[in-house]
Design a protein that fits this description.
The protein has helices at 7-17, 23-35, 37-56, 64-75, 78-107, 114-128, 140-146, 235-249, and strands spanning 135-136, 167-175, 178-187, 190-198, 205-212, 215-221, 225-231. By secondary structure, it is of the alpha+beta class. It has 2 domains: 7-107, no CATH class; 114-249, Phosphorylase Kinase, domain 1 (2-Layer Sandwich). It has a 7-stranded antiparallel sheet with strand order 1-2-3-4-7-6-5, sandwiched between helices. Helix 2 crosses helix 3 and helix 3 crosses helix 5 (78-107). The protein is globular, with a radius of gyration of 22 Å. Mean pLDDT is 80; it is low at 100-111.
């Protein structure tokens, strides 16, 4: 365990990275990540380490070149081997530090638009979790009732399979500590999260596009609610999806 972090924080950190926290607990932990640089750095190191471990286990059999290099390494004198391993350890440390800095920057909240930052962060967290959805179904008549009792309103759920964007399912995200519905659609190999936030007497607005941490985001309002669509799909796919969603939602 890293010095300066108690057992409870260590458990929460691992549970967060594993996607095991519920939406409220994850949102609160993300507030700590934004406020505690040391904790954010520890999270980035843990993600980098796990990714390296997954990469290392990608192949069942090491390539011949690696086998030959290992044999040759242990055939050298002890002092020479220690120097080589020390250089390798230094290189790995530099890589982890650089990866940690990149991960922390990538997952920081969007300070200019905190709502956008939370919605994009929830999408990223869902992609990192074992499953990006809480209810899996392509049937809107299954997904919509699932939200009963979980959020304070009935979300708009439409079927866009005919337009090339099949419904995958839904989940509950948290924005400003309030549960909101997140519907998940597929666009080719990409997933699109759609969040609907009711707003009384909201002024209608046309879709506006922006990019946040490499993710395309489109925001619009229909006068009753504000909508957000987030994905790493292409600009053209996102525009086509939003156009289809607005047309189907009426």
């Amino acid at each position: 365990m890293t010095a300066g972090r108690d057992d409870e924080t260590e458990i929460l950190l691992n549970a967060y990275v594993d996607g095991e926290l519920d939406a409220v607990a994850a949102s609160r932990f993300e507030e700590r990540l934004a406020a505690e640089p040391g904790l954010a750095a520890a999270r980035a190191r843990l993600i980098t380490l796990r990714q390296k471990l997954r990469d290392d286990m990608a192949g069942d059999v090491p390539p011949p070149a690696l086998r030959q290099a290992i044999v040759a390494q242990f055939a050298r004198p002890m002092r020479s081997r220690l120097a080589a391993w020390g250089a390798l350890a230094a290189a790995l440390l530099v890589g982890i530090v650089l990866g940690s800095a990149a991960a922390v920057g990538f997952l920081n909240f969007n300070r200019a638009d905190p709502i956008a930052g939370q919605i994009v962060a929830a999408h990223i967290r869902a992609l990192m979790a074992p499953q990006p959805i809480d209810v899996a179904s392509s049937d809107r008549h299954t997904v919509k009732p699932w939200f009963d009792g979980r959020i304070a309103f009935a979300p708009t759920v439409v079927d866009l399979a005919a337009q090339g964007f099949p419904l995958v399912g839904g989940r509950v995200d948290v924005v400003d500590l309030e549960p909101v519905p997140a519907l998940v659609y597929r666009a080719g190999k990409h997933l699109i999260s759609v969040v609907e936030i009711p707003a009384e007497a909201a002024a209608s607005s046309a879709p506006s596009e922006s990019t946040d941490r490499g993710y395309e985001t489109i925001r619009w309002s229909d006068g009753k609610a504000t909508w957000w669509a987030v994905s790493d799909a292409s600009d053209a796919e996102m525009r086509a999806f939003v156009s289809a969603l607005i047309g189907a939602a009426g």
